[in-house]
């Protein structure tokens, strides 16, 4: 299961975020991006010692500072089931040539010479050949 697909499914759900410095944030996920930067709303922030609390309307957390995320187990189970159904649907919808090889067997056009630039592999002058 991919973490970003799980985060996308967790939008508007409660979650706990612990940062590498020990601070924790409890709130509802508003948004996330491909760098795992997240926005939370209705947030309770706790300092690393756990003795001070702040209530925030909304906060933005950079993904590189996150140590871990905790989401409800029910959400994790539902995402697993949904991905399993999608996987089964993809298997059933593929034809006899599953795998996407195409009409040419997935090999594409043959390469000629080095780097496909049309130079011969042996013989001729230049490009590493022996010359005549």
Descriptive overview:
This protein is an alpha+beta fold and 132 residues long. It contains 2 helices and 5 strands. It has helices spanning 3-9, 73-93, and strands spanning 14-19, 24-32, 38-46, 53-61, 66-70. A 5-stranded antiparallel β-sheet has the order 4-3-2-1-5. Strand 2 (24-32) and strand 3 (38-46) form a beta hairpin. The chain is elongated. The termini are far apart. 8% of the residues are buried. The model has no long low-confidence stretch (mean pLDDT 80).
What keyword list fits this structure?
single chain; 132 residues; alpha+beta; 5-stranded antiparallel sheet; 5 strands; elongated
Write a short abstract of this structure.
This protein has 132 residues and is an alpha+beta fold. It is 21% helix and 29% strand.
How much of the residues is beta strand, in percent?
25-35%
**How many helices does DSSP assign?**
2
> What topology, given as strand order, has the largest sheet?
4-3-2-1-5
Bin the helical content.
Answer: 10-25%
Regions with little confidence, pLDDT below 50 for 5+ residues: none
Order of helices and strands: HEEEEEH
Shape: elongated
Major beta sheet summary: 5 strands, antiparallel
Distance between the termini: 59 Å
How is this fold's topology laid out?
Layout: H1 3-9, E1 14-19, E2 24-32, E3 38-46, E4 53-61, E5 66-70, H2 73-93
Antiparallel strand pairs: 1-2, 1-5, 2-3, 3-4
């Amino acid at each position: 299961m991919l973490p970003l697909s799980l985060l996308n499914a967790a939008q508007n759900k409660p979650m706990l975020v612990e940062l590498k410095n020990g601070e924790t944030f409890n709130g509802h996920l508003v948004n996330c991006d491909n760098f795992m930067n997240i926005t939370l709303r209705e947030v309770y922030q706790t300092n690393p010692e756990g003795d001070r609390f702040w209530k925030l309307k909304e906060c933005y957390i950079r993904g590189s500072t996150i140590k871990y995320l905790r989401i409800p187990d029910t959400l994790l189970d539902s995402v697993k089931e949904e991905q399993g159904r999608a996987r089964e649907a993809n298997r059933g919808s593929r034809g006899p040539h599953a795998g996407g090889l195409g009409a040419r067997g997935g090999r594409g056009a043959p390469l000629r010479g080095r780097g496909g630039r049309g130079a011969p592999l042996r013989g001729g002058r230049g490009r590493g050949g022996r010359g005549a």
